[in-house]
Write the structure tokens for this entry.
Amino acid sequence: MQILEGEKVTKYFGGLAAVSNVDFYVGQGEVVGLIGPNGAGKTTLFNLISASLVPKPGVIKFKGKNITGKKPHKICRMGIARTFQTVKIFTNMPVLQNVLAGSFFGTSPGMSSADAAREASESLEFVGLSDMAALPARDLTLANQKRLEVARAMATRPELLLLDELMAGLNATEITEGMELVKKIRDKGITIVMIEHVMKAIMNVCDRIIVLHHGEKIAEGTPQEIATSKKVIEVYLGE
Amino acid sequence: MPESIVTIMDVAIGGLLLGGIYALIAMGLSLQYGVARVLNISHGEFIMLGAFSTFTLYTVVGINPLICLAIVGPIAFIIGFLLQRTLFTQLRTSAPNPGAFEASSLLATFGLMYVIQGIALQIWGADYRAYTYLNFGVDLGGAIFSANKLVILGFAIGIGVAFYIFLARTHMGKGIRSAAQDPTTASLMGVNINRVLALCFGFGAAMAGLAGVLYSMRIPLNPAMGLQYTLIAIIIIVLGGLGSIPGAFIGGLILGIIGEIVTYIDPSLSLAAYYFIFMLLLLVRPKGIFGK
Amino acid sequence: MNITRFTSKGFLIPGLISLVILIALVTLPFYGSLYNVIMVTSILMYIILTVSWVLFSGPTGYMSLATAAFFGIGIYASAIFLPNTGAILPLLVVVVIGGLVSSLVALGVGALTLRLRGIYFAIFTFGLVVLILELGNWWEHTVTHTRGRFVMLVDNDVIFYIMLAIFVLLMLTTYLIRRSKFGLAMRSIGENEEAAAHIGVNVTMVKVITFAISAFFMGAAGVIWATKLTYVDPYVAFNPLFSFMPVLMAIFGGMGQIYGPVIGAVIFAYLQEKLQTEFPYYYMLIFGFVLVAAILYLPDGLIGLIQKLWRLIRRWRKGGAAKQDANT
């Protein structure tokens, strides 16, 4: 079964179509890469899936259910979590409290403090930030802030995780660690859609890749297919 | 002419007269908020100071109120310039982010309002003052207007247009406009941002001062009169789009006409009507009628 | 982690101090003069406005200037239900009604406007005050033909005790909210609203409910304040000053800690009272200077200043100790 489906998803900003008529699907347990040149509409598509924006026209289905037009917090509680292109952590709160907010609000409403705290520490351990639990989040390095954002998203117990440029701004070692983290999340059975510019990461961890250009889907396929696709190469070299 | 047409003319021209003053006040605040990001609650106090200075200069020294324009304008400019250079620069550099600066500067101008009102109370006392100047009727196509109203309108529009030309044509004006759009890029392009901000604040204060000089010919003065003009100016700049100077000018004229129409129906409702329109607009079009 | 760590450590001393202050306040009418009781009542009123303002605006970062509107609604509830010709409803019932009506207005206004961000929200809420003031004025002039209304006389001790009860309730509410899941939701909204929504916080609901809770206390305080004023008209009830004072008092005290706004309100209200009686002619001038100076030189408030000094002293002492170590 497909965990996520989009039909004719479209979004206009003024007269400009940021995302235009995109059909897509994501299978249960898949890691799907979303690539394309700057301004291709990748983040807009993420915003549409996570309900920051509402497609017009178009329909988005999660586990077969139409979720178009729902509020972001509802979408999150249904099981879709996300990270942001520019990190949006709660900078003045301690690291653990960031994650705790995720486990408190992103899951079922009846979660007790003790359970939330336990799950939050588990999430922190999962991304390897346990040692920094008490630090204010603003004191973390960029790589760790991104890990924290992943931990906070994981704490909401997602079935689908949207990662927006997890590797951007990281050095080579950190990118390798990031790739490991993505694989670890996949191994937990969580479906992943990731926007990424670091080709090595995309080629390495994705099962399937969707290419956007000027808001339209221009190609789709396995990493090998995409790497050899004439159309995709043209788009990237034509820039 | 039928009486109803005379009434409409009366209301329309009356609205333009009121609108001229409003436009001037709003342009001043628009400069201060649009460029310097200071939502100046003490803006109206500069109007009050301008008005009282004219009152004293005219009744005690005997200087013609129109000549007072040339005295009050530059002095208000200097006060505004210095305030930006000292108080607001200090607040701007110590604020962690632009939002924090907007909040702290708004509160500081609230304190400033008290200081200026306190000084005015010391000098002029709490009573209403007034003087008469050019208070005779002029017949305009059947409707009669007092001469000072027409002089006020003429000068208000003249000052407004002159300032707009200054912004559009001169080098300094272009610097101000580019700083209003994007301070970072402007400073990269060699605009001395601190000087531009101080200039804007100075011009804003000067406009308020000039509006005070003009308006003192028409209304009784009181040290507590300023706040309502600040409120009207805030309504207009939101109406015209925060930071848009032509928007402030046109918005001022529109609000003047609305004010005159409402006053014709029920004078005690005019401020309420302004606020009703304003809040409706904030909800429907938070960027203002002329906002991007 | 103040949510999981609910131990008694660091809890005893503030608790004891609070208890001592509370006892001192409860017994005040027995040892204090009438003047003192009246003065503490006004200080309590300012504390209530400030703390309930901070309750919403502190964590969420939305600067509300609607305080005067909610406070004024309470004042008018008093004028309508407790006229000097004889109370229509019991005093305590009116206190609750004033609070509830303010809350309802806050719910409506909040649902409409909380999507406005930054300065727009501040402008809108301030507009609300002026709109209600002007409409009230128009209503009194043209519909009811009353210039002002007289509120029944209430014993000063009774006014004091009701104000004190509202204050205690407010402090308890604030304390519980800060420690609860709800408080965490509010802080995450203040930190980053978009991220908060995407981790499952029902952003609109949290904001609107908190806004309504804070308005309840403002309205309730307004009802009892009106019995102290005895004469009420729209200018008295919806004085825009009451919108700005809580903000200034909170900033003056420092908003990081629960007691910051309280200390700010106490000092400010006392200062205002003293200035008004001792220097009636220079009151505005001095007050304005204090405001500007506080914003310029105390960006983190008095509490922030004290914390900074404390850190300096500690560093200085540590530095001294290190030097001694080096010498031996």
